[in-house]
Write a structure and sequence with these properties.
The protein is α+β, with helices and mostly antiparallel strands and 128 residues long. It has a single domain, classed as Aspartate Aminotransferase, domain 1, CATH 3.90.1150. Helices cover 32% and strands 25% of the residues. The protein is built from 4 helices and 6 strands, in the order αββββαββαα. The protein has a 6-stranded antiparallel sheet, with helices on one face. It is globular, with a radius of gyration of 14 Å. The chain starts with 8 loop residues before the first helix and ends in an 11-residue tail after the last helix.
Protein backbone atom coordinates (compact mmCIF):
# COMPACT_ATOMS: atom_id res chain seq x y z
CA UNK A 1 0.00 0.00 0.00
CA UNK A 2 1.51 3.39 -0.99
CA UNK A 3 2.38 5.89 1.71
CA UNK A 4 0.26 8.99 2.15
CA UNK A 5 2.08 12.03 0.75
CA UNK A 6 2.69 15.13 2.82
CA UNK A 7 0.44 18.06 2.00
CA UNK A 8 2.34 20.49 -0.24
CA UNK A 9 3.68 23.49 1.65
CA UNK A 10 1.99 25.84 -0.83
CA UNK A 11 -1.43 24.39 0.10
CA UNK A 12 -0.66 24.65 3.82
CA UNK A 13 0.47 28.26 3.43
CA UNK A 14 -2.82 29.23 1.79
CA UNK A 15 -4.85 27.39 4.42
CA UNK A 16 -2.85 28.93 7.25
CA UNK A 17 -3.58 32.38 5.86
CA UNK A 18 -7.32 31.64 5.91
CA UNK A 19 -7.34 30.22 9.44
CA UNK A 20 -5.09 32.96 10.84
CA UNK A 21 -7.95 35.40 10.22
CA UNK A 22 -10.37 33.36 12.37
CA UNK A 23 -10.40 34.08 16.12
CA UNK A 24 -8.91 31.41 18.39
CA UNK A 25 -8.49 28.93 15.55
CA UNK A 26 -5.39 26.79 15.92
CA UNK A 27 -3.51 24.26 13.84
CA UNK A 28 -2.35 20.87 15.01
CA UNK A 29 -1.01 17.67 13.56
CA UNK A 30 -3.65 15.04 12.86
CA UNK A 31 -3.37 11.27 12.51
CA UNK A 32 -2.44 12.18 8.95
CA UNK A 33 -2.07 15.69 7.63
CA UNK A 34 -3.05 18.82 9.52
CA UNK A 35 -6.28 19.94 11.16
CA UNK A 36 -7.64 23.17 12.58
CA UNK A 37 -9.77 23.48 15.71
CA UNK A 38 -11.37 26.40 17.48
CA UNK A 39 -11.26 27.71 21.05
CA UNK A 40 -9.74 24.66 22.69
CA UNK A 41 -12.49 22.31 21.47
CA UNK A 42 -11.92 18.82 20.18
CA UNK A 43 -14.16 19.50 17.20
CA UNK A 44 -12.36 19.85 13.89
CA UNK A 45 -13.12 22.81 11.64
CA UNK A 46 -11.09 21.41 8.73
CA UNK A 47 -8.59 18.63 8.05
CA UNK A 48 -6.24 18.48 5.06
CA UNK A 49 -4.37 15.32 4.13
CA UNK A 50 -2.86 13.25 1.35
CA UNK A 51 -4.48 9.95 0.50
CA UNK A 52 -3.00 6.59 -0.41
CA UNK A 53 -4.14 7.39 -3.97
CA UNK A 54 -1.65 10.33 -3.86
CA UNK A 55 -4.49 12.90 -4.06
CA UNK A 56 -4.98 15.69 -1.53
CA UNK A 57 -8.27 16.31 0.26
CA UNK A 58 -9.67 18.80 2.69
CA UNK A 59 -12.77 18.05 4.75
CA UNK A 60 -14.85 20.64 6.56
CA UNK A 61 -18.33 21.24 8.04
CA UNK A 62 -21.38 22.48 6.15
CA UNK A 63 -25.10 23.00 6.74
CA UNK A 64 -27.18 19.87 5.97
CA UNK A 65 -28.71 21.32 2.78
CA UNK A 66 -25.23 22.30 1.56
CA UNK A 67 -23.93 18.78 2.22
CA UNK A 68 -26.62 17.40 -0.10
CA UNK A 69 -25.86 20.02 -2.75
CA UNK A 70 -22.12 19.29 -2.69
CA UNK A 71 -22.78 15.56 -2.80
CA UNK A 72 -24.87 16.01 -5.96
CA UNK A 73 -22.26 18.27 -7.58
CA UNK A 74 -19.75 15.44 -7.59
CA UNK A 75 -16.03 15.87 -8.19
CA UNK A 76 -14.12 17.67 -6.84
CA UNK A 77 -16.63 17.58 -3.92
CA UNK A 78 -17.60 14.55 -1.86
CA UNK A 79 -19.54 13.80 1.31
CA UNK A 80 -17.42 12.76 4.26
CA UNK A 81 -18.23 9.31 5.58
CA UNK A 82 -17.73 10.08 9.28
CA UNK A 83 -20.22 12.84 9.96
CA UNK A 84 -23.59 14.06 8.73
CA UNK A 85 -22.25 17.59 8.19
CA UNK A 86 -18.83 16.75 6.70
CA UNK A 87 -18.02 17.69 3.10
CA UNK A 88 -14.76 17.16 1.30
CA UNK A 89 -12.96 18.69 -1.62
CA UNK A 90 -10.12 17.30 -3.72
CA UNK A 91 -7.31 19.86 -3.79
CA UNK A 92 -5.02 20.43 -6.74
CA UNK A 93 -3.33 23.30 -8.51
CA UNK A 94 -6.61 24.34 -10.15
CA UNK A 95 -8.63 24.55 -6.90
CA UNK A 96 -10.71 27.70 -6.39
CA UNK A 97 -9.03 29.05 -3.26
CA UNK A 98 -11.43 31.98 -2.89
CA UNK A 99 -14.40 29.62 -2.79
CA UNK A 100 -12.54 27.35 -0.39
CA UNK A 101 -11.83 30.29 1.91
CA UNK A 102 -15.57 31.02 2.09
CA UNK A 103 -16.38 27.35 2.75
CA UNK A 104 -13.77 27.14 5.51
CA UNK A 105 -15.04 30.36 7.11
CA UNK A 106 -18.55 28.88 7.11
CA UNK A 107 -17.19 25.66 8.63
CA UNK A 108 -15.50 27.67 11.38
CA UNK A 109 -18.75 29.53 12.09
CA UNK A 110 -20.62 26.24 12.43
CA UNK A 111 -18.10 25.00 15.01
CA UNK A 112 -17.14 28.14 16.94
CA UNK A 113 -18.93 29.57 19.97
CA UNK A 114 -21.23 32.47 19.07
CA UNK A 115 -18.93 34.98 20.83
CA UNK A 116 -16.24 34.14 18.23
CA UNK A 117 -18.62 33.89 15.26
CA UNK A 118 -19.71 37.47 16.02
CA UNK A 119 -16.13 38.61 15.35
CA UNK A 120 -15.96 37.11 11.84
CA UNK A 121 -16.66 39.14 8.72
CA UNK A 122 -18.68 36.95 6.37
CA UNK A 123 -19.81 38.09 2.94
CA UNK A 124 -23.59 38.38 2.93
CA UNK A 125 -23.93 37.79 6.70
CA UNK A 126 -24.91 40.48 9.15
CA UNK A 127 -23.08 40.83 12.43
CA UNK A 128 -25.10 41.18 15.62
Amino acid sequence: MPARPDVPEAYLARLRQTFAALPECHEEEAWTGVRWRVAGTTTTVAHVFGGEDQLFRIVFRAEPEEVMAFQHLGAPYFKGEWGANVVGLLLDDSSDWEELEELLTDSYCLQAPQRLVDLVDRPGASRS
